[in-house]
Amino acid sequence: MSTIKLVTEVPGPNSVALVARRDAAVSRGSARLTGIAVASGDGATVTDVDGNTFLDFAGGIGTLAVGHAPPAVVDAIRDQAGRLIHMCSIVSTYAPYVEVCERLNACVPGDFAKKTTLLNSGAEAVETAVKVARAYTGRHALIVFEGAYHGRTNLTLGMTSKYALFKSGFGPFPPEIYRLPFPNPYRRPANMSEDDYVQYCIDQFDHALIAQVAPQAVAAVVVETVQGEGGFLPLPPRFAAHLRARCAEHGMLYVADEVQCGMGRTGRLFAVEHYGLVPDLLVSGKSIAGGMPLAAVTGRAEIMDAPNPGGLGGTYSGNPVACAASLAAIDMLDSPAFQARAVEVGQRIRRQLERLQAEHPEVIGEVRGLGPMLAIELVRDPVSREPDAALTNLITAETLKRGLITIRAGLYSNCLRFLPALTIQDEQIDEGMAVLAEAVTAARAV
């Protein structure tokens, strides 16, 4: 039985009307990727204000690993809201805040004493990790990477790579940020093996520690374990191991930004677990609270205690309702059964994406990702590998009008990323992949 149910054209008249009101009332800088207006969600689906039901492969851009409105999270929110909606953790202590920090201290990799601080968003958490690193090391410089996305605050925009979409018109940005190559094996030089290319990127990193900034000046190396906006590029294991070793050698902190790739998205609770890698600080967010606004920084206790009292936190940081939601979400995400199912979801989606690539080798350059965090890269030609953002946009439009929500990614905006609820059913995966296949064919015919 089909999950997708379309009763009007897409977008329908009620969506058109509500989106028009949004466009009239909301800054155009607050982007929207579709023309639909959603009324409700359930698992891997959403229903719009016209009564159309869609499969959602965008998943709140990674915030909904446990799906839309999972009963355990909804119950936790209702219970907590009936007792305490807000207090401010600066003013008083409440159990859900403490319990989330205790859970993260226990499950973040590392056999040492850990502490956590809670924030509202991934960008705020990344910025907090930088503050912690600078307070602990007494250093100021940061090393970040091409293709990175770390947020939309001024500091995290300075750390973010994609200029035209995120940064244009918002400078000046903070100093002491050094951007180095991130290995993208698909776009390596044609005459270079993948191993040689990874070694080249390692050599570039080491060269930068002489040519651009001394390691004794670097507070932190901040890196996404799997680049999100950059196009779902996993860190090559040898490159990750080298960064970890250089950080340990020179007293630079290794900060793993797992806002998008953490919390079960790769089939493990944290993506660094695939690498056997222990960061000094780990930033989590998005799916940490089942769709509620919450993020965290977790790390070695002595590092996390470096900022002066009052240097961290905010009015809404660690809101009790968000924390209650997080406890329920983490119960789901941290279970072996959930993670095993996430791996199965990734395998099923990858098989079908690779089959689609075999049918369209001229335009699907690569299928890549880690576990169920997957993307395809669209190109104009398989030899030149010229990015095709226009085709990507056409495909997302074609999937939407057929009842499947997909969104783009990538430094060149030429990737389709797949972030469905990890509770999705096999039949729903197959239905979504069938729609995608129709959409690719239709988009290529335009």
What does this structure look like?
This protein has helices at residues 13-25, 59-62, 71-81, 95-107, 122-137, 154-159, 163-166, 194-211, 237-250, 301-304, 320-333, 336-359, 389-401, 426-445, and strands spanning 38-42, 45-48, 53-56, 114-119, 141-145, 177-180, 218-224, 226-227, 233-234, 253-258, 281-284, 295-300, 364-370, 373-378, 404-405, 407-409, 415-418. With 446 residues, it is α/β, with parallel strands linked by helices. It has two domains: 13-18 and 38-56 and 339-445, Alpha-Beta Complex (Aspartate Aminotransferase, domain 1); 73-333, Type I PLP-dependent aspartate aminotransferase-like (Major domain) (Aspartate Aminotransferase, domain 2). The longest helix is centred in the last third of the chain and has 24 residues, at 336-359. The chain is globular and about 60 Å long.
In short:
By secondary structure, the chain is of the alpha/beta class. It has two domains: 13-18 and 38-56 and 339-445, Alpha-Beta Complex (Aspartate Aminotransferase, domain 1), CATH 3.90.1150; 73-333, 3-Layer(aba) Sandwich (Aspartate Aminotransferase, domain 2). It has 14 helices and 17 strands.
